[in-house]
Amino acid sequence: MYKTIDLFAGAGGLSLGFKQTGKFTLLAAAEIQESARETYKRNIPDNPETFVFIKNVIGYDFKKLSESLGGIDIVIGGPPCQGFSNANRQKNHLISLNNALVKEFFRAIKEIQPKAFVMENVNMLESNTHRFYDSEKDHDVITALIEKGYKIPLKEDKLFITKDAINEFDILSTVSDCKKVQAFLLPKKLFQLLHTMKKHKGNKERLKSFLEKNSKTLTKKIDEYYNSAKAEDVLAQWNCRKLKHIREAISSIESVANCVELSELIELQKNMLAALEIYQNKLIGDFLRTDSGTIVFKTNSYAVIDYVSAILGDDYFQRGATVNAKWCGVPQERKRHIVIGIHRREGAEPIIAFPTEDPASKIYTVKDAIYDLKDCEVCYDLPCLPVPYSPTEDISSYAQQMREGSETVKNHIATNTTPTAKKRFNAIEPGHNFHSLSQEMKSTYSKPERTQNTIYLKLDPQKPSDTVVNVRKSMWIHPTLSRAISVREAARLQSFPDTFEFWGSKGSQYQQVGNAVPPLLSKAIAEKLLQLI
Predict the structure, then answer these.
(1) Tens of pLDDT along 14-30?
(2) Are 48 and 136 found together in one domain?
(3) What strands lie across the sheet with 316-324, from one edge to the other?
(4) Which one of the listed residues 81, 259, 328, 376 is annotated catalytic?
(5) In a domain, 361, yes or no
(6) What is the CB neighbour count within 10 angstroms for residue 308?
(7) Which structural domain range is residue 442 located in?
(8) C-alpha distances out from residue 309 to 44, 172, 340, Å
(9) Contact predicate 458/430, CB 8 Å
(10) Is 240 among the residues known to form the active site?
(11) Per-residue pLDDT tens for 478-502?
(12) What pLDDT does 443 receive?
């Protein structure tokens, strides 16, 4: 048995696939989200009492962990990808902590020196456009790698901050001073309320509901800001002038909908938060004003893929490839980039192979995955007790595989459907989404043309599903029943067996399923790894 740890484990999809081979034993996992950690704990460890849970990988002593476990053979994990910057998108402010998490994953590899590692992420890791920014945190490390001859080409980037269109104060001098940026930012709760209100400006029904629930609290928070703002503070007084108009507008839905000051305030606050991110991440560079009149931050960047290739130096043979989950028996189109590394001490350079498409293999569909659950009772509120399987002859080989070892259907909980949503559910044909609705049925959306293709997707029973996301937020629809997809049905699409039970709130369960690595994809990767070690 290979001693294995899973970093960024989520609910445990990656771990489960490795465990299913019978050749890997999971001894530790890192997961910061409490509900996902509880789900993992109840499903994965063979010995929960000795299992090590790491809540936060940043700064964690992985060398000490390895020593305490008598060595670690395999490190697996899927660092979050939302923080990667795409340099081609001018307004991408997602510098964020997530960049650091990829680097923490490889720091763990350096400290543990396992026989092998597997990193799972979206296929953006193949792309040269997804980049890290030059930062004081690891500038010396990158410089040293370049000096040793590793190819990490640096590219000049300009991060958009804001339009320089305010007469009352100099934005460039403001963003160039971290203390000024911090002083300009509104209190977190006040900003959140204002930001939510702005999002509802184009939907009178939602705006009305928001104001009924929050107008008193919002007014109180604005008054608190008034009272704390210093008269000599130019930035705070600019905020106060905007807030004065917003406070007056709160009494009327029409006034809020037409409140220009609300849009101006939120836009500049978001831009200042982007500037604060630059300071928090200790990026190296300069704020400047361009010829077109925008404020940008000029810095250097380097491709994530170049970093991944260089950071482990000569310690590992490594190769990456994009794998589609449907090739591995998952009833879903889901492309993930997988990097496998084999330590050089294990022998001569191996041929690192990945699962590939096999025309002779069966591709499972939505019908294969969930139709045997059609007559099982769905619950809409917690607690959601397990329900018995309904008698049916329509059980695919895939469904039989998912049922193995289980006597009941767990997590068969779905979102309640509003009358408006139900009308949309009934109007959409299988394989189609929100965009197939009439203009009249899109009326509650302020900009329906910008709605993503995953929204109100009615699954096509004859095909694998699209990439499973948080299907509650996206309001995925059952192919034949006028209701949303349940947590269990989403889990089936991800290849979680029915014995696997999710814990936490309804929203958390949906999120855990959407974030997970499909276990059958993970198992296929694990089997390839076994051939190498």
Answers:
(1) 999 999 999 999 999 99
(2) yes
(3) 52-54, 24-30, 2-7, 74-77, 116-122, 335-343, 316-324
(4) 81
(5) no
(6) 20
(7) 366-516
(8) 31, 37, 11
(9) yes
(10) no
(11) 999 999 999 999 999 999 999 999 9
(12) 67
